[in-house]
Amino acid sequence: MKQIVRSTFFITAGGALPLLSSLVLLIPYTNNLSTANYGALAIYISFALLVQILMNYSVDAYLSVHYYDYQENENKLKHFLSNVFGILLSIGGVFILVISFIGYLIFPIIFKENEISFFPYGLMSVVTAFFNAWFRTYVNIQVFGERPVKYFLFGLFNFLVTVVISIYLINLYPYTLIGPMWGRLLSGVFIFILTFSFGLKEFGLKFDYKLLPSIRAYATPVLIFSLLTWVLAYINNYILSGIMTVGDVGVYDFALKCTLGIEYAGLGIAGAFNPRIYKNWKSKGELLNGSQEENRYYHVFSAVNMLIISTTIFIVPFLIRLFVNNEQYYESLDFLPLLCAAFVFKSLHTIYLNPIMYFKRTNLLPMILVITALVQIISGILLINLFGIWGAVWSYFLVKPIQVLLLRHKAKAFFNFSFNKLKIFWVPMSYVLGVIVLCSTNLSEFEINTSQLVFAILLILFAYKNEIKVLPSMFKKAP
Q: Do 63 and 202 form a contact (C-beta atoms < 8 A)?
């Protein structure tokens, strides 16, 4: 248990550093950019993330499962990793050329406003994505190899260079996108050089493409899954830019940025728990039933996730008004409770996704995401036309439970789940309903945010008494 707590701390902290850099940079961004410029920046960043997904080709997901097939033989593991990273570099190089050509053609068609063009910032986004794709894949190996401290230190380096360079350039070129865009690109150069050097020293680099069919077979469905997940996260920005204005994109995206703490904390917790769940399943052979062993992780995930959500809703408005001087961005706070509440479904999402990933049933994922992406796009267009930014918020919220239901339907076909429905389902859903009811009242922002926090704490004290009892001893044993 001591090792679990230590690993969870470093992985969660390392996973949260990108969030921290985003939050730190929000202050100079919002104080130096109009909502229109910030909206354009949000478009470029989301485009870079799309390109990063393509260049990574879900190699990190492939490694998360196949790494353990070679773990017991160091020489085979090094040979495996050197080949995988050779393939990753090749994929990235091809995509830089292809996407640069396509971007030059389609940007003028998609974006009519002058604030968004492919040259220079679209091209810079493509190159930045290449560096980040390599970096993310390399540092994730530290998680698979159970080296959480090293994972954290690489994340810390990325955080420092990104923040320092970006803030320096923003102050040097205020009220333009020069600072934010060049800051991202230059930090990408530094983290690529660092991790590439470590990779060469640790396992070398080979361009042997024998693994390519295996990667393609496993990773292609996951890639489609990741692309459709990108649609769910960012397509509303593009719909808003077409129906409304880039300034509205800025307001909506800033509200989403305020939820990043919840997202990264959830990813960090899942990243710490999932390897142990997978190892437990591996030790039991082709187990097709859930057990109490993994449920203890899921119960903690559910309770901590709800506490993080409710605390975020309560604290963020104070922080925004304290650090953000541009009052244009205060409009985003109206949408914060509902956007945060959507993350309650994350624990259920993880429960139903894990068997699909572990038992390599990734062929089930594309159809699930196709349906939810279509719901996102259609509901986004309809609701944004009717309700503006509120339409985007409700569209974002509604696809979360739909995705969970589809995952459950597919996973139950080959895996028997057994968990405490009160802790995993009824308590989190009660909290979501409470947030929706509070948001529909005439209470003030402070009253709504305080009430939902109190409600969440009461639910946690009621439902997760056993988990609360063991947490102090867990952290007491940690170094």
A: no
Listed in sequence order, the DSSP H helices in 111-147 are: 123-144
The tokens for 29 are 């961004």
DSSP 361: -
**Which tens digits make up the pLDDT trace of 99-141?**
989 988 888 888 876 678 898 999 999 999 999 999 999 998 8
219 near 59, Cβ under 8 Å?
A: yes
Residues 137/59, Cβ–Cβ less than 8 Å: yes
Q: How far, in Å, CA of 143 to CA of 147, rounded?
A: 6
Query: Looking at the predicted structure, is the pLDDT value of residue 473 above 70?
Result: no
Half-sphere exposure of 113 (CA within 13 A, CB side): 17
Give residue for tokens 């349906």: 371
Other beta carbons within 10 angstroms of residue 319's beta carbon come to: 14
Task: Please report how the helices 148-172 and 178-202 are oriented relative to each other, as an axis angle in degrees rounded to 10.
Answer: 150
C-alpha to C-alpha distance for 180 and 165, rounded to whole angstroms: 9
Per residue, the 3-state secondary structure of 87-107, as one string, reads HHHHHHHHHHHHHHHHHHHHH
Give the tens place of pLDDT for each residue, 382-410: 999 999 999 999 999 999 999 999 999 99
The residue behind tokens 């506490």 is 307
Question: CA 262, CA 436: separation in Å to the nearest integer?
Answer: 18
Strand partners, 289: 416
Task: List the structure tokens of 293.
Answer: 């062993």
From the number of C-beta atoms within 10 Å of its C-beta (0-12, 13-18, 19+), residue 60 rates as buried
Please name the helix (run of DSSP H) or strand (run of DSSP E) that holds residue 441, with its range, or none.
Answer: none
Q: What is the pLDDT of residues 356-371, one digit of tens each?
A: 888 878 778 878 889 9
Phi, psi of 325 (to 5 degrees): -90, -25
